Amino acid sequence: MNSPFLVTPQWLEQHLHDADLVLVDVRMSPPGLTPKKDMQAEFERGHLPGAVYFDIDDVADKHSALPHMLPDAAAFGRAAGELGISENSTLVFYDEGNQFSAPRGWWTFRNFGAKRVYVLDEGLNGWTARGNALESGPAKRPTAVFNASFNPAAVVDMAQVEQALGSDIQILDARAAARFYGDAPEPRPGLHRGHIPGSINIPYGELLENGRVKSLEALRQTFSAKGGRY
């Protein structure tokens, strides 16, 4: 798919040594897996050349009972800066290739002011499938300053969701259908089964084909079939 927010493994081969490029590995342990997979160790076993590891589980609001809630801007800026990332870096996020966590990294950094952010289509698997090498060991970038500023328009709270119920605002649920319909338990402790009333289920996996984002026409067909507007 042609998109201003996606880059291909072929593109990355040509730009790997660009001075302002930072590859950001955001692979995550699968939700509900106990004990959690050590993703820092996974990163050090093999990652794209020059990449840093951003831990979505760890860089989060530590005062919330819910996982993966956004931290405040100061905490985020410190974490990004320690990885050698500034708000002016060109950032390419990747996961295994299932687009499970790379878009979350992309979204998070955009919310805090990063200006040039992309997702690697096909992820790590797409990179290695072309015969490209991985690197092992810890990240080696010098620290930087990330001037973080949170964009409140990108996030809604519970009251805003409640106000949207029954209106023409679409609420999309990207979880698997079994979780949406309450047929499967939530992998995170304490969360109820089911979905927000009136929401539309478009599982994120149905937007992909072999690790790549589907074509625009195929995405239109998927959204239309599910009752979504675009």
Automatic annotation (TrEMBL):
The Rhodanese domain, residue ranges: 17-136, 165-227
Keywords: Pyruvate, Repeat, Transferase
Signal peptide interval: none
Record's keyword annotation contains ATP-binding: no
Tagged with keyword Transferase: yes
EC number(s) stated in the UniProt entry for this protein: 2.8.1.2
InterPro entries: Rhodanese-like_dom, Rhodanese-like_dom_sf, Thiosulphate_STrfase_CS, TST/MPST-like
Enzyme class: transferase
Recorded superkingdom: Bacteria
GO molecular function terms attached to this record: 3-mercaptopyruvate sulfurtransferase activity; thiosulfate-cyanide sulfurtransferase activity
Name of the protein in question: 3-mercaptopyruvate sulfurtransferase
Organism field: Serratia rubidaea
Encoding gene (name): sseA
